[in-house]
């Protein structure tokens, strides 16, 4: 069964999700801590700069960060980075160029399994965002497989430093 992510937000929910963008634009992005990234990317049709603030779900020693397109494949920033993978990421005041890469199903499954082990609350939030419930009522082996299956269907995007 494929997850059915909620629709991109509208109305007050859209304002709520975009509020952190205002903090970054005023030079106050550091108030969000190191768990969020300001993504500057190009529009797939216009080529104009666009921005979104996203939650970081994983960091690597190389400086790469990973996020999830919680609203699914119709999310604007996700579609834009597929068309134009050269982006800029900013965490607090640290801004650097990066290249976006959508993870394949096997690597995404591995990432989800790692998240379940190290950050279970984040894994449960991701499950809710993509329209699934956390597999908590299953035997451990079945739950592990269900998490991996969910991960394989989740849109993880890694931003590698350039």
TrEMBL record:
Per the UniProt record, one Pfam family is F420H2_quin_red
Q: Which domain of life is it from?
A: Bacteria
User: Which region is the signal sequence?
Assistant: none
Recorded hits in Gene3D superfamilies, A to Z, give: Electron Transport, Fmn-binding Protein, Chain A
Q: Which reaction does it catalyse?
A: oxidized coenzyme F420-(gamma-L-Glu)(n) + a quinol + H(+) = reduced coenzyme F420-(gamma-L-Glu)(n) + a quinone
Into which family does the record put it? Belongs to the F420H(2)-dependent quinone reductase family.
Q: Kindly provide the name given to this protein in its UniProt entry.
A: Nitroreductase family deazaflavin-dependent oxidoreductase
What lineage does the source organism belong to? Answer: Bacteria, Bacillati, Actinomycetota, Actinomycetes, Micrococcales
